[in-house]
């Protein structure tokens, strides 16, 4: 699978370790940066990841920052991308099964390497369940005209 991965400076080391692990697992990795641990702004890298996934340059995305919160917000600004903030494998699997998430976000300050690998494994191995979830997922890419009223 072709997977895009991006982080900010706080998650640079986690990104490097996960990218190497994913390559060893046989995946093609699109590393969107940063190239070192110098301070950067997470929205810039979240937007890069969202563009890679929405354009089809990558099938799935992995977004990392200190908490995972900021970069997940940035990624989700793109209506074609559904990025779930996850911290354990069940949430990663449910993000795929129920929400057809095409990206996940994790926090390097909150998630260790073994748990991050477990989340990614669940995310990559779970299929979208479809059925009753399909129409709900379609709504996620639409801007509501009535502001949810």
From TrEMBL:
| Name of the encoding gene | rpiB
Q: Which family does it belong to?
A: Belongs to the LacAB/RpiB family.
Q: Where is the active site?
A: 65, 98
EC id: 5.3.1.6
Instruction: Select a single GO molecular function from the record's annotations and give it.
Output: ribose-5-phosphate isomerase activity
Amino acids binding D-ribulose 5-phosphate: 8-9, 66-70, 99, 109, 132, 136
In Swiss-Prot or TrEMBL terms, this protein is called Ribose 5-phosphate isomerase B
Q: What residue ranges are annotated as transmembrane?
A: none
